Amino acid sequence: MSMKSESKTVVVLGGGVLGISTALSLVKLGAQVTLVTEGELCSGASGRSLSWLNSAGERSPAYHALRMAGVDRYRTLFAQDPTREWLRFDGGLCWSTNDTTSTLARHAYEKAHGYDSLLVNSHNVATVDGQVNASALAEVAIANPGEGWVSLPELINFLAQQFRALGGELIEYAGKAAVLTEAGRATGIRCHTGDFHADAVLVACGPWTPAVVAPLGVHIPDGSPVSMLVISKPTPQRIKVVMNTPRAAVRPNPGNTVAVDHDWYEKEIAQQTDGTYTIAQSVVDKLMQEAGALIAGHDNLQAQSWKLGPKPIPGDGEPVLGELTKVPGCFVAFTHSGATLALIAGELLAGEIVSGEKHPMLSTFRAERFS
């Protein structure tokens, strides 16, 4: 059955991966869509995401199912063109420092619900990725062969090209925006570019989403920390796996570079009076030293650039997705796993917006759980 809607108008607020993914899904369903973003596309949290595609570790069954559906959509995209250097499925590798018990417990949990999880050590880690420094591993590590990664700037550009080609309107540098309402229903958004009226609004502003919906009387607890993503200078060592380790999280990146993040340095980040964030070069260098130690033969990994800003995390860690009961016509997309969920969340949200029917996979992720 077709779900086309030739007359539905939608304003999407937010130029990150969730915003552009939903906007593209909406135009494919026949909606008239305007995407409005404060700056340029991918200038917020999506531009500083490690974007590791996974459902590793422990989480609720509903969240795990949604993440696995998200990975599935990326596998479909990957199958269409396996040569893309910005989307790969070469597996993941993780370990804890001198904590074999917790590593074994995580492995057992993953195996119990069918997640591809293998135990490896320094003697056989080369079968996972020969570029991993075996001496950096703990006594035991977990390899997850089904995991992958995506570089969101390239993905967002790929989706935006399709969005424009299908008639979607993109407005960048619109500044701060507010949701317009009439008789309690969302009717569009207001920004310095002007008012944009629509049948429905999607707020997908990353860590700023709770603040955007707060004036509507909707409270979404915000646990977003300030974090950093570092891109290395080009390196001849080509790791394949995503590594999540006690002192650095590392993944391959286009252009023979490496993307690095973690959280141990968060207390070193300072906010300036203009709202921007800074961190000492010495801290960045230390993170790159930790990352370089994970890669065989590369203990001098150097930073080329880095970005700092809030990382979107709802207060309870679970995604917030769907229409606000308190404000009909206003939908939200706020989640820590924006990269993994981007394609599936965009698809499901677009379906709800066009059809008016709630999707069962989003039932536990509504904002109303906080009220």
UniProtKB/TrEMBL annotation:
The keyword Manganese does not apply. InterPro entries: FAD-dep_OxRdtase, FAD/NAD-bd_sf. This is FAD-binding oxidoreductase. The lineage of its organism: Bacteria, Pseudomonadati, Pseudomonadota, Gammaproteobacteria, Enterobacterales. Residues 10-350 form the FAD dependent oxidoreductase domain. Signal peptide: none annotated. Pfam families: DAO. It comes from the Bacteria. Keywords: Oxidoreductase.
